[in-house]
Design brief:
The chain is α+β, with helices and mostly antiparallel strands. It has 14 helices and 15 strands.
């Protein structure tokens, strides 16, 4: 048979949103992080949080199109949109967002924490690796408390929690212009067990993709609005006609601007004082969240097998980049604070140097646990709102920096207060309270009037109100 000759036709030109320089940086950092952690692989994505443009997307081991036959099957797919996993602590964003958006919990509401919590119907306790007797909502997010997340989810309830998760885009495809994307799994509440809500609160019993997680956090950077990510910028015909043009597309408002701003401050606190201090870059404000999850292999959690992740955006005041780094099955150290967070720091340093993000004198970049804000008036206003009294050394001037003001402060009298009020006050003064008993405080040691010292702790002895009055 002779087939008719068909003249070749000049093809169209496809322009992508990828930034070649940023893509190269991401690939180098991801490879270095995976090899340094002796992991089996990793994933990294960077987007523009105000447009949804994919600026870089990488996975390691790399897939070379010319050597497809030499690679393993699991590496022959785009893992950022095809691989599902339980997100762990990064899913606490949903828990906190639901509580704030529906006005069920306030940032300074305090919860009892500890190291173990025997929630109803659970055979095993919910545990925290970093034990604190009491934590505010903000501190619980910064310190990544599973216990407080579970308690907050009880206030939120199944319906609000489920709706918030769906609003963030979990359980549905992001809509990226790539084939093979999976939707993940968020079961409807009628399919939940009695323990599901508490478990989902810290990121188990749900399945997500890396891109879904990044888009959810990018929504916070975008003032609460979820976007559709896209990779194809435009397609031009041979005669330069625009055949297709990618555009930013809003899916929905997930949370109010106020809630988004509060969550952004929570995330910045994670970097300044919480589990991601290793991601700090001097002069650049970063917001983000760590997550470390046990790997579920064939329906079972395998001892010693983990996935660690850091997701965030920068600079906080005007986000230009939102990024995610996931390290799959690291050996030795495995917490995200030790694996993904340092890689994120390197990413911020190199991208800021390349793109010219100006560094600022950010006074709050301290290794200690600072109080939010830089002016001592912030502390005075907090105390005034709660009808507390702060004893200060009258011979000293009212310095501007809180760290200086606190060094001149004297220990307040908390006898007669509830443990909650005392805990909030002392925490704001960077004092660690040790609480004995329940009820109102009947005795404190050291006594009021002593100079506040660095890393100071105070023992608070409590009794029921009736006993305290009789005494």
């Amino acid at each position: 048979l002779e087939y008719p000759h068909i003249k070749p036709v000049q093809g169209s030109t496809v322009y992508l949103t990828l930034d070649g320089t940023i893509q190269s940086i991401v690939e180098d950092i991801l490879q270095g992080a995976v090899e340094r952690c002796k992991a089996i692989g990793g994933i990294a994505i960077i987007i523009h949080p105000q447009t949804g443009e994919i600026l870089a997307m990488a996975q390691y081991p790399f897939l070379y199109p010319s050597k497809v036959n030499e690679s393993e099957t699991k590496d022959q797919k785009l893992r950022a949109i095809t691989d599902m996993f339980e997100p762990g602590s990064v899913f606490k964003l949903v828990t906190m967002a639901a509580a704030l958006e529906y006005n069920l919990v306030q940032p300074d509401n305090v919860f009892t924490a500890g190291s173990k919590y025997f929630a109803p119907y659970r055979r095993a306790p919910i545990v925290d690796t970093h034990s604190s007797p009491m934590l505010s909502m903000r501190e619980a997010f910064e310190q990544s408390s599973n216990i407080v997340a579970a308690k907050i989810s009880d206030r939120v309830g199944a319906n609000y929690f489920y709706q918030t998760a769906k609003n963030f885009g979990f359980g549905e495809a992001t809509g990226i212009d790539l084939a093979g994307e999976v939707a993940g799994v968020v079961k409807k509440p009628f399919l939940w067990s009695k323990t599901s809500l508490n478990t989902m609160a810290f990121g188990y019993e749900v399945s997500v993709t890396p891109l879904q997680v990044l888009m959810a956090y990018a929504a916070i950077a975008n003032h609460g609005v979820l976007l559709t990510p896209y990779l194809v910028k435009k397609i031009l015909s041979p005669d330069h006609r625009v055949l297709y043009e990618g555009r930013s597309s809003n899916i929905r408002r997930v949370v109010s601007e106020k809630t988004a701003a509060t969550l952004s401050s929570f995330m910045e606190g994670v970097v300044l004082r919480g589990t991601a201090k290793e991601s700090q870059v001097e002069g650049i404000r970063i917001a983000g969240k760590t997550g470390t999850t046990k790997k579920n292999i064939n329906g079972h959690y395998v001892v010693g097998r983990y996935q660690s992740m850091f997701v965030g955006f920068f600079p906080v005041e005007k986000p230009e980049f939102a990024a995610l780094i996931m390290i799959d099955d690291p050996s030795g150290v495995y917490y995200a604070s030790q694996t993904a967070a340092p890689a994120f720091k390197e990413l911020v340093e190199k991208i800021s140097a390349t793109t010219g993000i100006p560094k600022k004198n950010v006074a709050s970049f301290e290794k200690s646990m600072p109080i939010a804000g830089n002016d001592s008036d912030v502390l005075q206003k907090k105390i005034a709102r709660r009808n507390y009294s702060l004893v200060k050394d009258a011979s000293q001037k009212n310095d501007t920096m809180i760290s200086t003001a606190l060094s001149l402060s004297l220990l307040p009298n908390v006898v007669g207060m509830s443990t909650r009020k005392a805990f909030i006050l002392l925490s704001e003064l960077k004092i660690s309270p040790q609480i004995f008993g329940t009820g109102i405080i009947v005795k404190q040691f050291p006594s009021a009037g002593e100079k506040i010292k660095e890393n100071m702790s105070v023992k608070l002895y409590c009794a029921s109100e009736k006993i305290a009055i009789n005494n």
